[in-house]
Design goal:
It is a single chain. With 265 residues, this protein is α+β, with helices and mostly antiparallel strands. The chain has one domain (35-259): Gcn5-related N-acetyltransferase (GNAT) (Aminopeptidase, 3-Layer(aba) Sandwich), CATH 3.40.630. The protein contains 6 helices and 9 strands. It has helices spanning 18-32, 69-73, 80-98, 129-134, 161-175, 190-198, and strands at residues 35-46, 60-64, 103-110, 116-123, 144-151, 180-186, 202-212, 217-224, 253-255. Strands 2-3-4-5-6-1-7-8-9 form a 9-stranded mixed β-sheet. The radius of gyration is 18 Å and the shape is globular. Bound molecules: coenzyme A. Coenzyme A (COA) is lined by residues 1, 81, 118, 150-152, 157-163, 185, 189-192, 194-195, 198.
């Protein structure tokens, strides 16, 4: 739910060569502005603890993504946000096929019509350092996976599709041998916050990303959330810009100047 790759990035995560890359970087930096700050809440769920399944207001089922889902999820004439999401999905499909993103794409479909009503990704450990740093992602343990990039087309919003999808993807993860799931949700995204909580996730950390001088300097800070339990609760707050926090599976801070990101969300 956190990684927004640069839409024109190639499947291997790079921005391309020569002038195209330069243009892309300049546009990205201008869009960032002189300073910005983005706060996300880190959520976790222990899959050995059963929860009451959230019920959507329409009958739904989960399945793997199919190429014809793209047009149904993102019909032509959609708004800018939907176009960006489509770019994300296309980038992720290329990156997954290329092997740099160990991520699976799931679609929730409405049973009656068969129409896709939600798309979301489950990412395994093993993504490359460039991807991890650019998305400010944690290092995942072998039995962990991460939910990312949830999207519900406008006509299906508010029907409980995201909550149902998060729950059903967690069940898939369990059947794949996972014991713990994590997700990062922007602190101002009320619908997503509610959906992951309905699907049994509990807040355990706060991630603050800052950038200065049009992206020249970036910092990422992870802090535990008061009252958090479970793995995420082991993180401790640190000053920004240095080092990693061993043992909690989450890199506590990254000086993102180390990596030129393929994205810049
Ligand atoms: C965020 C998003 C995926 C939510 O999808 P959804 O299928 O509508 O979510 P749900 O129907 O499961 O809604 C979850 C809860 O949030 C509520 N909700 C929905 N939209 C809301 C809004 N704008 N403000 C506050 N609450 C909202 C729902 O009523 C529901 O609460 P309830 O269970 O008490 O009824 C969808 O709005 C979307 O695609 N947004 C654009 C992309 C995005 O922000 N992705 C998330 C990245 S983390």
């Amino acid at each position: 739910m956190t990684f927004k790759p640069y839409p024109h990035a190639r499947g291997d995560g790079s921005l391309g060569d020569g002038l195209a890359m330069l243009r892309a970087r300049v546009a990205r930096r201008i869009a960032l502005g002189p300073y910005s700050r983005r706060v996300s809440i880190g959520f976790g769920r222990n899959l050995s603890v059963a929860i009451e399944p959230p019920v959507a207001k329409i009958p739904v089922r989960l399945r793997d993504f199919r190429p014809d889902d793209l047009a149904a999820l993102f019909p032509s004439g959609g708004d800018e946000a939907a176009k960006r999401e489509r770019d994300d999905v296309e980038w992720r499909l290329r990156a997954a096929a290329h092997g740099v993103l160990p991520s699976r794409c799931y679609v929730l479909e409405e049973v009656r019509s068969g129409r896709p009503c939600h798309v979301q990704w489950l990412t395994d450990p093993g993504y490359g350092d460039a991807v991890r740093r650019s998305g400010a992602l944690p290092v995942l343990a072998a039995d962990e996976a991460m939910l990312e990039n949830a999207f519900t087309p406008k006509g299906f919003r508010g029907l409980g599709a995201m909550a149902a999808a998060v729950y059903l993807i967690a069940e898939r993860a369990r059947s794949l041998g996972k014991g713990h799931l994590v997700a990062f949700v922007d602190a101002d995204n009320a619908a997503s916050l509610k959906a992951v909580e309905r699907a049994g996730f509990r807040p355990c950390s706060i991630r603050t990303r800052r950038q200065f001088a049009f992206g020249t300097f970036r910092t990422v800070r992870f802090e535990p959330r008061a009252g958090a339990v479970g793995r995420g609760a082991r993180a401790t707050p640190r000053d920004e810009g240095y080092g990693a926090h061993p043992g909690d599976g989450i890199q506590s801070e990254v000086d993102a100047r180390e990596a030129e990101p393929p994205d810049a969300d």
